[in-house]
């Protein structure tokens, strides 16, 4: 699919516009600096886009302020001594250089051991770490989904883990498919449970309707504090907007 992209101005703010074969305008505020991005129907005029965005200025400013007030970690270099997080706990990375199969493991409660060849690139080290995080999150998510499916009365036909720039989780309610953000493996497990419950509820209630909020409050009475705290965690260099 060819997607036309260009920028327009909303007052002093640049807006990235993507033209897509859709019916409605979709708005997102992107990290790290609060870039405004809209996906707009092919035939919607730029002036119509500006008018719709102008109506959302208070919300736009609020979301951009969140990003501008958050602390971000520097990009990872994957060298010994770096701090990395796993299930909300801080670990110190220890890189072991040898010719054994590349792997990641925990050493006690304070160290993550990354075993890679001495000449391995930052990209390769990132890939090895990401796959370890992915598998750990997959195992935990599998347990949580099995826990909540019978409680909510839904069936997840498929779930996966991937890097996402704008969501902690997403789902396709028709296909019964759920995706979780890889970054969740770095946060306390309570937040993974919150995102799992959130997405499973979308399998029966597509939108954030009054019914959806009521159901979420019934299953997770403290979901609002979980959501707020999740968005306060230290951001990585490619962190995501909260759901």
Automatic annotation (TrEMBL):
Source superkingdom: Bacteria
Alphabetical list of InterPro entries matching this protein: UTP_pyrophosphatase-like, YgjP-like_metallopeptidase
Gene3D superfamilies per the UniProt record, alphabetical: Metalloproteases ('zincins'), catalytic domain (3.30.2010.10)
Record-linked Pfam families: YgjP-like
Keywords: Hydrolase
Span of domain YgjP-like metallopeptidase: 30-232
Gene Ontology terms, MF aspect: hydrolase activity
TM spans (from-to): none
Protein name from the UniProt record: Metal-dependent hydrolase
């Amino acid at each position: 699919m060819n997607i036309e992209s260009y920028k327009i101005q909303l007052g002093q703010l640049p807006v990235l516009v993507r033209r897509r074969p859709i019916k409605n305008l979709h708005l997102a505020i992107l990290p790290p600096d609060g870039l405004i991005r809209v996906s707009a129907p092919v035939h919607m005029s730029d002036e119509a886009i500006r008018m719709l965005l102008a109506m959302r200025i208070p919300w736009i400013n609020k979301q951009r302020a969140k990003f501008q007030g958050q602390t971000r970690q520097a990009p990872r270099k994957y060298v010994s001594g770096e701090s990395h997080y796993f299930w909300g706990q801080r670990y110190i990375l220890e890189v072991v250089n040898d010719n054994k199969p590349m792997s990641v493991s925990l050493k006690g409660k304070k160290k993550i051991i990354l075993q890679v060849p001495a000449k391995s690139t930052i990209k390769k080290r990132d890939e090895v770490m990401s796959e370890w995080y992915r598998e750990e999150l997959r195992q935990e998510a599998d347990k949580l989904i099995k826990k909540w499916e019978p409680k909510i009365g839904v069936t997840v036909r498929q779930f996966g883990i991937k890097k996402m720039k704008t969501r902690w989780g997403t789902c396709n309610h028709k296909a019964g498919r759920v995706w979780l953000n890889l970054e969740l493996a770095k946060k306390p497990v309570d937040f993974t449970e919150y995102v799992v419950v959130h997405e499973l509820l979308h399998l029966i209630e597509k939108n954030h309707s009054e019914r959806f909020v009521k159901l979420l409050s019934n299953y997770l009475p403290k979901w609002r504090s979980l959501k707020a705290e999740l968005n306060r965690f230290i951001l990585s260099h490619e962190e995501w907007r909260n759901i």
